[in-house]
Write a structure and sequence with these properties.
Blueprint lengths: L2 H21 L5 H21 L4 H14 L20 E4 L2 E7 L5 E5 H99 L20 E2 L8 E3 L8 E3 L3 E3 L14 E2 L3
Parallel strand pairs: 5-6
Antiparallel strand pairs: 1-2, 2-3, 4-7, 7-8
Helix pairs in contact: 1-2, 1-3, 2-3
């Protein structure tokens, strides 16, 4: 850029500062930004084209005239963004409080509306907390009831299992005792039968070992002169021997005779109950 162009720009710059000071006072930020950009663009065009620097002031005045509001009353701030929370600001004779609305956004609310909304939100939060606590308490109670029921069911099942095991053990013991009793009875019966067989065998063996006894002749009625200790008439004497034997009498008897009392004469030498057998 040349020195001439620098001098040409310096004039509009001074006018720009004056225009900004004069034309933007009391405007809202959005309006101020728009007008500032427009005036800077105009100044640049005037400097580049050699236009009159006075036209910049005119343009600024024109912009002021065309955008001016009928009065200097501030725009309403209700429900506009704000910060910090609980901050206060006066507008149109009312006091506004920076309040967090139901969506969580910080906005300006008239003081009574802010107080009402805060009370409402606090009540809603308390109600929600109470509902959540009630739900948690109910869930805990339901869980405790379920655990108690499960414990009782497990205890009942355990008791039933133990009772069944005890009954089975008792039944098994009774069966074992009955089986042992039956086995003992069977063994006793077998032993008795074997003893009976052994006794019969012994008796048979004993009977087989004893020679058969000859039947004694029927004892005649005791006659006068016959000794009553013998069947068959054995004379009564000081001594009686078997006829044909080696005895020396004095009396003799013809055998055989049966000893039915005492063998006072010694006729039964082998003790088989018969004497003088030949």
């Amino acid at each position: 850029m040349t020195a001439h162009s620098n001098r040409a720009w310096a004039g509009p710059a001074r006018h720009l500062n004056a225009a900004v000071s004069a034309g933007l006072t009391g405007r809202e930020p959005a309006q101020t930004a728009f007008i500032t950009v427009a005036m800077i663009a105009t100044a640049v065009l005037l400097a580049g084209c050699g236009g009159s620097t006075a036209s910049l002031s005119t343009a600024g005045g024109t912009a002021e005239t065309s955008t001016a509001t009928p009065s200097a009353t501030a725009l309403p701030i209700a429900n506009t963004a704000c910060a910090p929370v609980d901050g206060r600001r006066a507008s149109d004779g009312d006091t506004y409080v920076c309040t967090r609305d139901e969506t969580g956004t910080l906005v300006w609310l008239e003081e009574s509306a802010a107080r009402s909304l805060t009370t409402k939100l606090v009540a809603a939060a308390a109600s929600k907390a109470a509902a959540e606590k009630a739900a948690a308490d109910k869930a805990a109670a339901d869980k405790a009831d379920a655990e108690k029921a499960a414990a009782e069911r497990a205890a009942a099942e355990k008791a039933a299992a133990e009772r069944a095991a005890a009954e089975k053990a008792a039944a098994d013991k009774a069966a074992a005792e009955q089986a042992a009793s039956e086995q003992a009875a069977a063994e006793k019966a077998a032993a008795q039968a074997q003893a009976a067989r052994d006794a019969a065998a012994a008796q048979a063996a004993a009977a087989a070992a004893v020679p058969p006894q000859r039947a004694a002749p029927a004892a005649p009625a005791a006659a006068s002169g016959c000794d009553p200790n013998y069947s068959g008439c054995v004379p009564i004497a000081s001594d009686v021997d078997c006829a044909g034997g080696s005895g020396n009498g004095p009396a003799y008897v013809q055998g055989p005779v049966s000893v039915i009392g005492s063998d006072i004469y010694g006729l039964d030498r082998d003790g088989d109950g018969f004497g003088c057998e030949g």
